[in-house]
Structures are given as C-alpha cells and as structure tokens.
Write a structure and sequence with these properties.
Layout lengths: L2 E5 L10 H15 L4 E5 L19 H10 L2 E9 L2 E2 L1 H10 L18 E8 L4 H14 L3 E11 L16 H23 L6
Parallel strand pairs: 1-2, 1-3, 3-5, 5-6
Antiparallel strand pairs: 3-4
Helix pairs in contact: 1-5
Length: 199
C-alpha cells in the first residue's frame, strides 16, 4: 500500500504552505498505519491546461499521472480561494478527467479500486463546499471515498491567520485527520483484496 499527496497550493517551493502542512499531517497518520506517502507540490511542475493524458512537450502531467496510477490512495490538498478549490487543484481535476476514457483489460476505468481523500485550508468558511466539489470530481473519474474522507481547517471570517501560523494543531483537526487516515486505509485494503467487478 502506498499513497500520493498532490498539494495544490499556489505557492512553489520553498514558500511555507498551509496546504502542505495539513498534507504532511495526513502523511504522518498514514505512516502510522504502514502506508508511506509521496508528496508532490504541483506548483513546482509545469502541468499544462487541458483534459488530455499528455499535452505535449514539457508537460509534467504524464510523470504525475504515473505516480497516481502507482498509488493506492490519492490525497488532494487545496486552499480555498474565492470560495473554490485553487486553480491548481482545478487543473489537476481536469487532467484526471482524461482517465474517464481509459480502461483496463476488463473494460473498467483505470482508477477503479483506488481511494481518495481531501484536505482543505482557508481563512474563511467554505471547506464543505470545496470538499464537495473535489469529492464529486474524484468520484466521477473512478475514485472511491471512505466516510470522513476530508480534513480541514478554516479561520474566522475577516481575519488573516493561516493554518501554518497556528501555535499547534487544533484537537478537532488532529482527530479528523486521524479518522480520515484510518477509514481511507481500511477502504483501500478492502478494494485491494476485493476489486470492483467488471461491468
């Protein structure tokens, strides 16, 4: 079992990132369950716009796509911007949309039997709306989602504190992150042992 976390902060490395911090906390929980996680900050790569598997020379998506296919669990971590997932998150979802036409030898979508989870951070409300958007897109392309497949933190309205600037992790966030990891790994193991049937 292995996981991949695609961190969709708008900031390239090495800038601090609240999305990366929450992703790292999920990875720590997954590691306790024996599931190593590779983390990729998507802004560090030239992922071209489009809904193709490969958008031509210089497109970094084919490399990231291979990592998605090698993983049993995909974590998408995104900030909230203007009430929506980040533009980078949207681009990742659009590129994943190409998988809808890709099938295995049994005619099943290639992303069947893979499990996804979501992390959301922001300074105001909107985590439920953003997770709903990302959940729907992930499910549309073939991922399964366990109960409690999102962890999030949002600050109070009209203030500017970021998750990465907190003195510590709020207990509620830590508990939710733990539940996400346990349920996601449980579902991924079930699907590994009992894949979905061919249509």
């Amino acid at each position: 079992m292995r996981a991949l976390s695609l961190v969709c902060t708008l900031n390239s490395s090495p800038a601090p990132s609240s999305s990366l911090l929450l992703s790292d906390q999920i990875s720590a929980e997954l590691d306790k369950l024996g599931v190593p996680t590779e983390t990729v900050r998507v802004a560090d790569h030239d992922v071209r716009p489009g809904i193709g598997v490969d958008m031509g020379e210089g497109d970094a998506w084919p490399m990231l796509r291979e990592k998605v296919h090698q993983a049993d669990i995909l974590v998408i971590a995104t900030p909230i911007w203007l009430g929506h997932p980040s533009s980078i998150c949207q681009r990742v979802l659009e590129r994943l949309n190409a998988e809808s036409s890709q099938t295995d030898e049994q005619g099943r979508p290639l992303l069947y039997d893979k499990v996804a989870a979501v992390a959301v951070v922001g300074n105001e409300d909107g985590a439920h709306k953003v997770s709903a958007d990302v959940f729907q897109a992930l499910n549309d392309v073939g991922f399964s989602l366990a109960p409690g497949a999102v962890t999030y933190w949002v600050g109070e309205a009209q203030q500017g504190t970021d998750y990465k600037d907190l003195d510590g992790t709020p207990e509620a966030v830590a508990d939710t992150t733990h539940t996400l990891a346990v349920n996601t790994v449980h579902l991924a193991k079930l699907l590994k042992e009992h894949p979905y049937p061919a249509g």
